[in-house]
Amino acid sequence: MKALDALHSRISFPKLNDPIPEQEVLDNIYKSAFRAADHAVLRPWRFLVIKGESRARLGELFVSAASTDRPDITEAEKLKLRDKPLRAPLILVTVVSPREHPKVPACEQELSAAAATQNMLIAAYAQGVGAMWRTGSMAYHPLVMAGLGLDSHEKIIAFVYIGSINAAAKNLLEVDLKTRFKEW
Ligand SMILES: Cc1cc2nc3c(=O)[nH]c(=O)nc-3n(C[C@H](O)[C@H](O)[C@H](O)COP(=O)(O)O)c2cc1C
Prior knowledge:
Elements: H1 3-9, E1 16-17, H2 23-33, E2 45-51, H3 54-69, H4 75-83, E3 90-96, H5 106-126, E4 130-134, H6 142-147, E5 155-165, H7 177-180
Antiparallel strand pairs: 1-5, 2-3, 3-5, 4-5
The protein binds flavin mononucleotide.
């Protein structure tokens, strides 16, 4: 797919199936992260690769985090949390690891990690691979962050769900460029 076609038509795919894309396809996705705009080229990110049984461990981590907040959580709610990581065969967790820099505040390093994540979504789409950026309360829960091995200065930017597409692409929303781009 041409770069502009991918940029103009990328969409999220909420339902993703096996199989996990081949390693060469994944490597293309991973490499794209490193072409994100990145002030001072700090590359202030790292990615956790979660697949197979590890997805169930992530689901249990979600359950134990939610249960700590709400000991009366229902079995149905636990089941829903357990199922979340099973919505795709592969999950990449974008972790921002900001470091002290005289010109690049931590908020800019988070933006770079977000740009890296967006690049990966586009690289997936360009190769016919489905992807979806998800966060939700679990992405910001201290027990989830600790359980995933984050250091105290790190944050989760995204859970990127990746897999094979099994649904028709949705229609793209129209955009009126004139209302969004105005001469100043
Ligand atoms: C920071 C961020 C967090 C997101 N978190 C969620 C989420 O928790 N659940 C979800 O369904 N979509 C999430 N999304 C995806 C958006 O819902 C999706 O991009 C939006 O609906 C537009 O659809 P499209 O990507 O197909 O254009 C998130 C996107 C971003 C950038």
